[in-house]
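forwarding from the other thread:

> can someone predict this with iron/sulfur cluster?

sure thing
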Amino acid sequence: MDIKTWESNKVTISVDYDKCNGNGACVGICPTSVYELQEGKTVPVNIDECVECCACIEGCPEMAIEHSSC
Ligand code: SF4
Ligand code: SF4
């Protein structure tokens, strides 16, 4: 299991790197550019900008992301 977790003062986001295939769907779909790809995996580098829309959860084909608000 390779699950990493990030927290802001509003939300918690976890990414399962065993599932993430690096396709970048979450990067493209997030309206506030929370994610960026680093070495082929997504990282929520701008987690403070999250507006809790859940698009990343719905857009990930691998169900690799967990979000405290979704
Ligand atoms: S959409 Fe899912 S599989 Fe694709 S980069 Fe994001 S977390 Fe990884
Ligand atoms: S919940 Fe919405 S705003 Fe937050 S990281 Fe996911 S797509 Fe971006």
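The mean pLDDT is 98. thats all i got for now
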